[in-house]
Amino acid sequence: MVGPLLPALEQRMQQRYRIHRWWEAPDPARFLSEHGRRVRGIATSGRFGATRELIEALPALEVIVSFGVGYDPIDMDAARGRDVVVTNTPGVLDDCVADTALALMLSVSRRICELDRFVRAGHWRQASPGLGRKLGGRCCGILGLGNIGRQIARRAEAFGMDIAYHNRQPRQDVPPHYRYCADLVALARESDVMVLALPGGAHTRHIVDADVLEALGPDGILVNVARGSVVDEAALVQALSTGRLAGAGLDVYEHEPDVPPALCAMDHVVLLPHVGSSTVETRQAMSDLFMANLDGWFERRRPLTPVA
Ligand code: 8YV
Asked: Which atom of ligand 1 is nearest to the CA of 88?
């Protein structure tokens, strides 16, 4: 194991496999030179991944089983180069991540967290709480209309929003009234709320930059349930602090668990600690799929959800 997993999942693994908690080894490099030859699998998550250095230090490595749908911190070139199979946990978390996106959209546009602070601070008697913005009738622009993106679209439609999206290609299997925008700036211009639901990694790093935020504009809201790396965080802080963006709802950050102090000081942002899929039900489903992949590989050489 590269980093901690849920204790219950670790217990399940321990019933069938010999587990090494590598990150706790007093000297990780020495651990690899002493035990690396016998390691056949890496258990990791979308948070800790697996580096090229680690993959190459394990000559008997067959499989990398990852908890979470995003696998951007796994060096896929190194894994492919060694014919190491990589699995993730797609499908089972789409609902919860989409719910989180809607929770952030509503929280920012209706100022839920800010007004909660207003009540707790006892301001209600002296001051007016002011107005929020309605979601219905406005446009939800989704960057990355994959499985999670489509669940976000369904929910946003239920709130009366119009849907626009950007993917590399238009999708043929989505309702025809979802408007396709050929580029990111066009999507931002079209959107009142822009939601990020695309994979992280080198190819999407900082694609939401100052120009995209400028196009989203002073009435626009950015919601990120994807990866912090997708957004140029310094540009986001700048846009929010100069009123060029109305607000942001963030579940992910560039350097987790570090959150820019400037964001923490802003009332028009809502900040979550990367909990998009964190419900009892979804964590159970992710754990089951993780185990099905691990056992599927070691029992039958057939993992359930290998990364393509
Ligand atoms: C997990 C996630 O919390 O699935 C993902 O890609 O980001 C989250 O569901 C994470 O992978 C576990 O660390």
From this structure: 4
